[in-house]
Specification:
Elements (H helix, E strand, L loop, with lengths): L8 E4 L4 E4 L7 E6 L10 H19 L3 E6 L6 H10 L3 H18 L15 H13 L3 E4 L2 E4 L15 H4 L17 E6 L14 E3 L1 H13 L3 E7 L3 H16 L4 E7 L2 E3 L2 E2 L10 H4 L5 H8 L8 E3 L1 H22 L3 E2 L4 H22 L4 H21 L3 E2 H18 L12 H21 L3 H13 L2 E6 L2 E6 L4
Parallel strand pairs: 3-4, 3-9, 9-10, 11-13, 14-15
Antiparallel strand pairs: 1-2, 5-6, 6-7, 7-8, 11-12, 16-17
Helix pairs in contact: 1-13, 2-3, 4-6, 6-7, 9-10, 10-12, 11-12, 11-13, 12-13, 14-15
Length: 480
């Protein structure tokens, strides 16, 4: 497979249109993903951004690119300081705890580790140097130990978000500080306050602002200009806008060439927030479903489309994933033979067509729903073949299985034929619910004999049924 033969189109927020993806270095892609601010457990909105970036990385590798991914950890920030003070631990202790929790959660979701995962606190000297450069070039100024970026000096400010500097001068969405030259100016360096961590700088003791952290670490590990910058839609302004301003003012060169942003994730139709009581962490979600199901749900909608987290959508994702894995297991279970027949030619032809549709879907701005549809075509072809054949020619089996594996690898779904990687407890619940529903139909038909037999047979299996005014309830009887 030659990278040059493939045409990948991506929606670039910077140009607000789909563009042909051409990396700076032939066959190589350098990308940066804004990582977590480690003051709490990762929520499913964060997880969507990280899973989307992981799928993008996996598909680029599928196409033959060598990918270098950098994703930071923000371990010093207003939020980390406030949470540490609330809980009575040091910022370092808090950030270490939630960094480990983040890594555990992402491992469960089968995210590949970044090639570099820099922590902000380990790069403060580089951040001080970056701020010094901005001051020397006239893009930044000091006030009482704080250093601000002067947005009026950077002519391209607003090119990512579309927010015009003139409109921002009115103070909209910006906390007005009388010490600023312009209401839209943002902080690069914050002067030290009692109870906060601090580092010594030319402007006194203090700490870096959030925005300078990401741009500094991105430039350090990917160069002054790199290929892809990713994150959630909520980061477009002000975070990513400010990253661009800082980096390009300092270097005089373009920062990231392609900006990819995923849409919101809602919970039961509402925006997720702690005030609404619908804040769902990855750990909360994994009490409702298996990690593979959560991941599959998160890619079931196009990354630039909203997605709603609810029990029904999880159930659909679980059923769809089970269908794919069942088909793979059926193929794997077929004995092999050396001679190919007409049915196998048809199977291989259908799978090759699905492979082409898969690539076309992913080349169209990483259209995972269409790619999943192509995977279902493979599953359908496998199931049709298995219904009519007791054996499969070895090379055909190998080609179909390899195609299927590579699809699932791009999705980030691990094959576990012995367990399907799916919620076995959930499968048992669905089966018993189905049997109970059938029993209720028998009761409505006044077929008491069949209804009683179902009840008695379930009791033998350790499942007790209770008919109540609210409906039929069942539970698994625990052994003595």
């Amino acid at each position: 497979m030659r990278v040059a033969d493939m045409v990948l189109m991506v929606y670039n927020t910077l140009g607000r249109k789909k563009e042909k993806f051409v990396p700076l270095r032939d066959g190589e892609v350098r990308m940066y993903v804004c990582g977590p601010t480690v003051y709490d457990y990762v929520h499913i909105g964060n997880a969507r951004a990280f899973v989307v970036a992981d799928v993008v990385r996996r598909y680029l590798e599928y196409k033959g690119f060598k990918v270098k991914l950098v994703s930071n950890v923000t371990d010093i920030d207003d939020k980390t300081i406030r949470r540490a003070n609330e809980t009575g631990v040091s910022v370092q202790q808090l950030s270490e705890f939630f960094t480990e929790a983040y890594l555990e959660d992402m491992a469960k979701l089968n995210l590949k580790r970044p090639d570099v995962m820099p922590r902000a606190t380990k790069h403060v000297p580089e951040m001080i140097e970056a701020v010094e450069t901005l001051v020397e070039k006239g893009y930044a100024y000091q006030v009482d130990g704080d250093v601000y970026f002067d947005v009026s000096k950077f002519k391209g400010y607003g090119k990512l978000s579309g927010n015009r500097t003139e409109a921002l001068q009115m103070g909209a969405r910006i906390e007005v500080d009388p010490r600023k030259r312009n209401p839209a100016d943002f902080v690069l360096w914050k002067s030290w306050k009692p109870g906060e961590p601090g580092w010594y700088s030319p402007w006194g003791k203090g700490r870096p602002g959030w925005h300078i952290e990401c741009s500094t670490m991105a430039v350090k590990y990917l160069g002054e200009t790199f290929d892809i910058h990713m994150g959630g839609k909520d980061l477009i302004f002000p975070h990513h806008e400010n990253e661009i301003a800082q980096a390009e003012a300092a270097t005089g060169k373009p920062f990231a060439r392609y900006w990819l942003h995923n849409e919101w994730l809602t919970v039961e139709g509402d925006k997720m927030s702690k005030s609404l009581g619908n804040f769902v962490t990855v750990r909360d979600a994994l009490k409702m479903c298996q990690p593979e199901v959560l991941r599959f749900f998160l890619i079931s909608a196009h990354y630039r489309s909203p997605i709603d987290f609810n029990k029904e959508n999880l159930r659909v994702a679980e059923g769809n994933l089970r269908r794919l894995l069942n088909a793979f297991e059926r193929l794997e279970g077929l004995p092999e033979r050396k001679v190919r027949c007409g049915d196998e030619e048809k199977l291989v032809s259908e799978v090759r067509e699905a492979k082409q549709r898969f690539k076309e879907a992913m080349d169209d701005d990483f259209n995972t729903p269409a790619a999943i549809s192509a995977a279902f075509s493979v599953a359908k072809a496998i199931n049709s073949y298995v219904e009519s054949n007791a054996e499969v020619e070895s090379s055909a089996k190998q080609e179909v299985a390899e195609t299927f594996r590579r699809f699932l690898d791009v999705f980030g779904v691990q094959l576990k034929p012995a367990e399907h990687g799916v919620d076995q407890a959930g499968l048992v619940k669905e089966l018993v619910d189905l049997i109970v529903d059938l029993r209720q139909e028998m009761r409505e038909r006044r077929d008491w004999k069949t209804a009683d037999r179902i009840r008695d047979e379930l009791r033998k299996l350790g499942i007790t049924i209770e008919d109540t005014a609210e409906g039929t309830r069942w539970k698994i009887r625990r052994p003595n």
